Amino acid sequence: MIPVLRKVHLLNGLTTAELEVIGNICSEKVAQPAEVVIEQGAEGDEIYIIADGSIEVFVSTETSEKVLVMLMEGQLFGEMALISRGPRSASGRAGKDGCKMYVLSSAKFNEVCEKYSPIGHKVMRNLALDLSFKLRHQNMAAM
Amino acid sequence: MSEAVYYKVSYVVEDGKHPGALINVERKPEVGDEVIFDGHLFVITDVAELMAPMGDFGFLHAACRLIGQAK
User: What is the pTM for the complete model shown?
Assistant: First the structure.
């Protein structure tokens, strides 16, 4: 698990010992192709790290659906649960080859971040960068 | 500053023919490279730095054109 976590931008700068702390609170989940992992509007506390495969992020109304982006190994989704407890802003389903993920409870993750402040500092800085990167991607895609 | 170890790449597909992808790669993509995601083959037409590198990561934007289905 550690080699995969090392490639996750959210955890950039963490030492091996700090990555092991995060690894200890991760569980593994495998989604079959097209399986919905998170649903827009639903309550959710988990953050997902893609270990293998892909996730298709989409938003939908009663009559339409729009795919926003494909996320692949090393990307995360559901990370807004780290900041706010509102409903999911988009849905995510596994891509054509399914998806293997590491799942983090945001409550446990926040607990670790508060207990080990160096982890919390690095993760929050990386989270801000990640959200900025995604926003810039959306801006480029909209041009 | 040392070279990035990983590149977080925002792939945006020309003409909106695909929603694009976010992928972490270990080699900096270049114009002319071919990339496969979501079962499709794309060729990269432009690469630009999207954000300044930080730590082990560089942040890139890569425009690409859909070529067809990946074999």
Answer: 0.88
